[in-house]
# Entry
Amino acid sequence: MWRPEIEQFQGPRYLAIAEALAVDVRGGALNPGDRLPTHRDLAYRLGVTVGTVSRAYAEAERRGLIGGEVGRGTFVRPDARRRKTQAVIDIEAPLGVPQIIDLSVNIPTPMTSAAILAETLTEIVGRPGIARLMDYHPHAGMTAHRAAGAQWLTECGFPIEPDRVIVTAGGQHAMTAALGAITEPGDVVITECLTYPGLRRLADFLRVRLHGVAMDESGIDPEAFETACRNLNPKVFYCVTNLQNPTALVVPVERRRAIAAICQRYGVKIVEDDVYGFLLGQDIPPALSSFAPELGHYFTSLSKSMAPGLRVGYLALPMGSRDDFTQVVRSTTWMATPLTAEIGADWIRNGIGRELADGHRDEAVARQKLARQILAGHDLSNEMRAYHLWMRLPEPWSAEAFALELRMRGVAVTPAGAFATTRNAPSAIRLCLCEPPERAVLERGLNIIASTVRSAPGVSVGADMGVV
# Structure
């Protein structure tokens, strides 16, 4: 069983393992077809974490040295020795040191200038009682912050009173508060068959069972959804109805009505994630939760609309249900950070938040146009105002093979399997268009994707795509 000598290599341990593997392949200590130790076994032998080995194997896959087979293990690729030497890409490199064109992270393009932030902080510092922002505050958030949250939710198409709003530490925390208050271990949570990966991790943490339901071009299929509600007695339906992650579809109003009616018929509570809805502007449809207000738990986050680092979210609750949810906030973060909540509230009240959101929408549209020019002729999602693009791949490409080939060429994307809640994931990838700060970098990545999709699986272009 292979045990790498990693002491001779500098840098992070996962890169040292990948470098040792490359040396052993070139030197003959590992041969094509050799089976590698499991992640757990190698971690135990080397005295490192399983995560370190997982990152090492991922880097070796990027270089084309190894490949995995479901149910069998990880093996040295037959053509490993013929592969060109790949440049080291440190996925843990410091911020601001780009090593790869990353189209796998769904965040907005930076728009908050130092001048805007400095002016806001200066104004906040000059207020009487500013030191109170460093104190403990109610778990649901300060009164002024909940009022600002209600204003933002209303502007985004979900009218709500401040006493029904909880301030959270971002959208993921809002989802944690909602599901943590509603569910108990063993409960069933229904979602689309393709859904936000953060839900899957949260379901593992809360020990609830996810059940994915089939989708069509309008969202979750009503007939399949009702069958699941009738047979599984689910506690919650989690959904993204606006610019769904990953497919970017917008659920039509009539489909929202139909799904809400089924939820009412079976008493299934709704957790509606609307972090992208602001991108639709004045065209945003009524929330699914508005058709079943006694069941609806609706949230959004300023991380997508203003700035990721704010980590401020707003969770809107049914009338009279706030106490259960504030207890989850108390048990997880105690409260959202008052200083960032104050910044968010300021930007909502003075209009900076709306300007930032509008700017993000304009940038998303411009990048969508660029992507559709470069990827013309391919099967792409329709919505132009999304941060991301859903691309269905032609045969014979599989999503995993395509994502691996792109990684070897210096572009990171997310294959459909990362979003799948059923066994049969489509042959598709999600492209996040707004993470690269410069459009020129995005254009380079899109051109690599266009070139790759025209080639055959397993054919790497190596140095001609800038990978040496």
Notes: Confidence is low (pLDDT under 50) at residues 86-98, 459-468.
